C-alpha cells in the first residue's frame, strides 16, 4: 500500500497502540481519538511521523473529516456493538476501505450489499473473533477428512470497561448461543452440563472450566470445513468472572447492559487474575482421517496479552490489504492462515504455539514455540 494513508480510529487504546507501533515504520498514519493529547503522546513515541486528529465518533462531521483522504480506515475503538457501522459508513462515503477488529455479524448485516464494487471491507479482524476462526483451519488442513472439531477460547486477564461492555452487548446481538453445538449443518442444543471441568495438557493449570458456547464465527468455520460435528467452549479460570457472567445471563436481556453489571465484570476479572500471570488461549481438537487412518490431534496458541494479539492480526491485514479479495468479508474466511500466524509469532515472540503436526510438515517451524 505504498503512498496510502491509513486512518486509525481508537489509536491510543491498547489495541490501536499495537497497530500503530507495527504500521508506523511501514505506512503513513493518521491517528484519531477523542483525547488529542493522548494521540499526540502516541505520535511522539512513534517518532512524530503521523498526522494527529481529534475525533468524536458520535459527531458526523468530525468522523467525515477524519476519514477524508484516507485509503484505509482501521477501527480499533469500542464498544464495537455500540459503534456498529458508524465508522464503516463514514469510511466508505469518504472513498476509503474499512477494517474492523470487531464488527461481527451485526455490522456485516448492515453493510451487506452496501460495499461499492472494487472496495474492501474486512470485519472480525482481531483475536476473538478473527484469529479464533483462522487458527483451527491450520490443524484441519493436515486432515483428509474432519469428523469432529472442538474449539476452545478463554484466558485470564483484567477486562477493560469497554471490553466488559462489549461482552455484555454481544450476549443479545447474535454473536453466539450458549449450550449449543453443531450437527450436520444445524445448530442444536448441547446435551452436556453447562459447566464442564477440563483436563488438558495445553491448559496452563489444572481445574479450568469449559462452558459450551457456539459462536457465529464457529458456525461459519464448521460450515466452510464441512465438519459434521462441532462444538465451541468458553474457558474460564478462577471462577469469579464465570460466576458473575452466569448471574448476568440469568437476568432479563434489557437489564444486562447496566453500569453495575459492567463494573461487576471488570471487578470479577481483576479478582481472577490477582497475583497471577495473564494469558489468552486458543485451542482446537480434531478427530478425523489423517495419513490414511483415523487420528485425533490438538493444537493450541497461548499469548500473554489479548490486545496485542488483536492489534497484530489487524496490522497483518493492513499490510496484506491488496492481496485480500474485494467485497465484504470476515477476516477468518479470507486470510492466509499460515502467513498470519507466522507473522504474529514474529511480532509477539512470547506467543507459544503447538500445531499437532509431525516433523517435516509445512508448519513445523512454528512448533519451536511449544512449551
Automatic annotation (TrEMBL):
Top-level division of the source organism's lineage: Bacteria
Domain Saccharopine dehydrogenase NADP binding residue range list: 6-101
Short name of any one Pfam family annotated for the protein: Sacchrp_dh_NADP
SUPFAM superfamilies, per database record: NAD(P)-binding Rossmann-fold domains
Matching InterPro entries: NAD(P)-bd_dom_sf (IPR036291), Sacchrp_dh_NADP-bd (IPR005097)
Protein name: Saccharopine dehydrogenase NADP-binding domain-containing protein
Organism: Pseudomonas idahonensis
Organism lineage string: Bacteria, Pseudomonadati, Pseudomonadota, Gammaproteobacteria, Pseudomonadales
Amino acid at each position: 500500500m505504498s503512498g496510502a494513508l491509513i486512518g486509525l480510529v481508537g489509536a491510543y487504546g491498547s489495541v490501536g497502540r499495537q497497530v500503530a507501533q507495527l504500521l508506523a515504520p511501514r505506512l503513513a498514519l493518521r491517528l484519531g481519538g477523542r483525547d488529542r493529547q493522548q494521540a499526540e503522546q502516541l505520535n511522539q513515541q512513534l517518532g512524530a511521523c503521523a498526522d494527529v486528529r481529534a475525533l468524536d465518533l458520535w459527531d458526523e462531521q468530525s468522523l467525515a473529516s477524519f476519514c477524508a483522504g484516507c485509503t484505509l480506515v482501521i477501527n480499533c475503538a469500542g464498544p464495537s456493538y455500540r459503534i456498529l457501522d458508524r465508522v464503516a459508513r463514514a469510511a466508505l462515503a469518504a472513498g476509503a476501505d474499512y477494517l474492523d477488529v470487531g464488527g461481527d455479524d451485526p455490522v456485516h448485516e448492515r453493510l451487506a450489499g452496501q460495499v461499492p464494487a472494487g472496495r474492501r471491507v474486512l470485519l472480525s479482524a482481531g483475536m476473538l473473533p478473527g484469529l479464533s476462526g483462522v487458527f483451527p483451519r491450520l490443524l484441519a488442513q493436515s486432515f483428509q477428512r474432519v469428523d469432529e472439531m472442538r474449539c476452545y477460547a478463554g484466558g485470564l486477564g483484567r477486562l477493560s470497561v469497554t471490553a466488559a461492555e462489549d461482552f455484555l452487548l454481544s450476549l443479545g446481538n447474535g454473536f453466539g448461543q450458549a449450550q449449543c453445538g453443531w450437527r450436520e449443518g444445524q445448530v442444536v442444543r448441547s446435551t452436556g452440563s453447562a459447566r464442564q471441568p477440563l483436563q488438558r495438557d495445553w491448559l496452563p493449570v489444572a481445574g479450568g472450566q469449559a462452558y459450551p458456547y457456539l459462536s457465529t464465527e464457529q458456525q461459519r468455520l464448521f460450515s466452510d470445513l464441512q465438519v459434521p460435528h462441532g462444538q465451541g467452549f468458553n474457558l474460564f479460570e478462577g471462577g469469579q468472572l464465570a460466576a458473575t457472567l452466569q448471574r448476568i445471563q440469568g437476568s432479563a436481556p434489557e437489564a444486562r447492559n447496566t453500569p453495575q453489571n459492567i463494573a461487576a465484570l471488570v471487578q470479577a476479572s481483576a479478582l481472577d487474575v490477582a497475583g497471577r500471570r495473564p494469558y489468552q488461549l486458543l485451542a482446537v481438537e480434531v478427530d478425523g482421517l489423517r495419513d490414511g487412518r483415523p487420528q485425533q490431534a490438538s493444537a493450541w496458541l497461548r499469548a500473554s496479552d489479548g490486545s496485542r494479539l488483536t492489534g497484530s492480526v489487524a496490522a497483518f491485514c493492513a499490510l496484506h490489504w491488496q492481496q485480500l479479495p474485494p467485497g465484504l468479508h470476515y477476516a477468518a474466511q479470507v486470510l492466509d492462515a499460515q502467513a498470519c500466524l507466522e507473522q504474529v509469532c514474529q511480532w509477539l515472540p512470547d506467543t507459544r504455539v503447538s500445531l499437532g503436526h509431525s516433523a517435516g510438515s509445512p508448519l513445523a517451524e512454528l512448533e519451536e514455540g511449544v512449551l
